[in-house]
Amino acid sequence: MREAVLLIGGSYGIGKAIVELIDQDYEVFVASRTKEGLEGMNVNHIPFDVLSDTLDISSLPSVIKGFVFCPGSINLKPFKMLNITTFEEDMNLNFFSLVRVVKEVIGLMSENSSMVFFSTVAVGKGMPFHSSVAASKGAVEGFVKSIAAEYAPKIRANIIAPSLTDTPLAGRLLNNDRKKEAMSQRHPLQRYGEAEDSAHMAAFLLSKKSSWITGQVFGVDGGISSLNL
Ligand SMILES: NC(=O)c1ccc[n+]([C@@H]2O[C@H](COP(=O)([O-])OP(=O)(O)OC[C@H]3O[C@@H](n4cnc5c(N)ncnc54)[C@H](OP(=O)(O)O)[C@@H]3O)[C@@H](O)[C@H]2O)c1
């Protein structure tokens, strides 16, 4: 029997690219609000809104080998234009909803299991207009490292910190050729990310190939976090 992987999100964006990479190797469960993007794919869909629903773990296998949390936001505005409500909303989606789901599922995680989370390049590298999203994703990084320490060696927990990646979430930042060219130029590797770039890292972190890796933050970012060209 194939081992089970649960994705919160996975109906489009990076999560769907992960599903496409792993659905032959694992029994995949996707909990999301929509499922149109999953038509024809070999996945079990659970209708779920992370902001309002409690995950019904009775619809999951009793043991889970892999877990991925995909929902996230990009609210980019100058600090003076960000009100406290935006900070609260970003914190709620990126951090508190993640903590609530981890509380639900962590008891199902098996020996040698793996959890994968998403941060952003803007946590490690200060970027203007990112104060709200960077704060909430910074909370994710601290939380996940602590969980990785607390649950080692049973459960591994790692974080992917992407730079701009072409998904529905980033649509507004890449909706014309001028923006695409400008965003490509910002990255040392001269392109913005594709969903598959982070998906390959996630598939690796879910697999046994990464069995000696936990508590890490991986930049999948075209070099922007560490190179100054
Ligand atoms: N794309 C980027 O440029 C970029 C950059 C840095 C970091 N990241 C991070 O990488 C992660 C994945 O990003 P992405 O670009 O793939 O995002 P995306 O295109 O918005 O996809 C998000 C996925 O999460 C699900 N989701 C969103 N809100 C949900 C909710 N309330 N309840 C349940 N599921 C929900 C969506 O499905 P439904 O709508 O069907 O529910 C979808 O499957 C995020 O955490 C993001 O912050 C992305």
List its traits.
6 helices, 229 residues, 21% strand, alpha/beta, binds NADP nicotinamide-adenine-dinucleotide phosphate
Describe this structure in words.
The chain has 229 residues and is an alpha/beta fold. The protein has one domain (4-220): NAD(P)-binding Rossmann-like Domain (Rossmann fold). Helix content is 34%, strand content 21%. The protein is built from 6 helices and 9 strands; from the N terminus they run E-H-E-E-E-H-E-H-H-E-E-H-E-H-E. It has helices spanning 13-22, 84-105, 121-124, 131-151, 177-186, 195-206; strands at residues 4-8, 27-32, 43-47, 64-69, 109-118, 155-162, 165-166, 193-194, 217-220. A 7-stranded parallel β-sheet has the order 3-2-1-4-5-6-9, with helices on both faces. The protein has a two-stranded parallel sheet with strand order 7-8. Helix 1 (13-22) packs across helix 6 and helix 2 (84-105) runs parallel beside helix 4. The radius of gyration is 17 Å and the shape is globular. The model has no long low-confidence stretch (mean pLDDT 97). NADP nicotinamide-adenine-dinucleotide phosphate is lined by residues 8-15, 32-34, 48-51, 70-72, 118, 120, 162, 164-165, 167-170.
Give a quick precis of the structure.
This protein is of the alpha/beta class. Helices cover 34% and strands 21% of the residues.
β-strand number: 9
Q: What structural category do the secondary elements indicate?
A: alpha/beta
Percent of residues in helices: 25-40%
Summarize the helix and strand pattern as letters. EHEEEHEHHEEHEHE
- Reported by name, the CATH topology is Rossmann fold
CA distance, first residue to last residue: 49 Å
| Structural domains: how many | 1
The first-level CATH class is given as Alpha Beta
Biggest sheet record? 7 strands, parallel
Number of helices: 6
Task: Tell me the radius of gyration.
Answer: 17 Å
Shape: globular
CATH superfamily: NAD(P)-binding Rossmann-like Domain
